[in-house]
Amino acid sequence: MGTYSKNKSCIFVKTQTEALRAIFKKNKTVLKFVALFLGTYLVLGILYSVYLKVSENSAYFPDYITNLVAKQSAAVLEGFGYSSVLKPDHLEQGMLLTIENKYTVNIVEGCNAISVIILFVAFIIAFAEKFKKTCMFLFAGSVLIYIVNLLRIAILVIALYNFPEYENILHSVVFPGIIYSMVFILWMIWVWMLKPIAAK
Fold first, then answer.
1. Residue 94 to residues 50, 51, 73, Cα–Cα distance (Å)
2. Rounded CA gap, 167 and 173, in Å?
């Protein structure tokens, strides 16, 4: 009786193991994508957190990238014909950007698009192809997202300056939608570029 139960248990475990193997084999591509995406996102997220920690009390407030984005956004506004003034805001941990001596916005760490670029990079690496091709697309896409973000900030500041009553919808819906739509389009372009190779 004991031997029969033991054999029955072994058969059950073997059947379950085989079923799991079949599921993993069938969904190998999906599981690989999820593992690469989450792994890359977590690693880059941790590295970015370390960068922010190291940046505390540095010469560039609140951190080098955010400081640079604030300065470049101000330069874009100047290019559009708006006078702008930048000064650090230690209370809110950002850079106060004032245009035409009338309207002020606070450019904080979340405005520098690095989190969005990390999301973009994680997806592309999860669908990585040839090393050179993947690296070129990662570089071009990241630069494009960075530039679009600068334009997004500048245009948002102008929109808020002219239509302050629409601040909530402009800041929370319209302009975040622009940057995330950009990332989605880049993802679709990458998937489209992989199609011919997958078909072969």
1. 18, 16, 14
2. 10
